[in-house]
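== Folding task for one protein ==

=== Format: two labelled lines per protein ===

==== Paired sequence and structure tokens ====
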Amino acid sequence: MSRKKTSKKRQVFADPIYNSTLVTLLINKILLKGKKTISQKIFYQSMTKIKESTNQDSLEILRQAVLNITPRLEVKPRRIGGSTYQVPLEVKADRGTSLALRWLIKSARSRNGNEMVSKLTNEILDAYNNTGSSIRKREEMHKMAEANKAFANFRF
């Protein structure tokens, strides 16, 4: 990593169908081996399944699901005097969204079944209803931060 200057944030363009940058970020997380059209197909089919099953706006359900998964606190290791402490820190908005999308895709991939479309649909609906493994991951992170609250004075 360069010591001279920080790297610039890349601009993320909105997708053509929903006109949302969140959708573009999620499609890029689904991406495997550079096959973007396949990941777009998986995502859009999943959104139509959500719309059919709930009779609500699927983009709003996705936004609410990502908000439910987004962590507020995380722990980062900090080495002080020969020992390493897990210091709880607040999560910035961009990092929180990135973590939420990463956990959503990872837990969707680890579900049982063959079709990624149905696995992603079920995981988004579970996150919308505050259940599922991605919500459990956020709760684990919050418990870890709560347990190490005593080391909050080592914040950097």
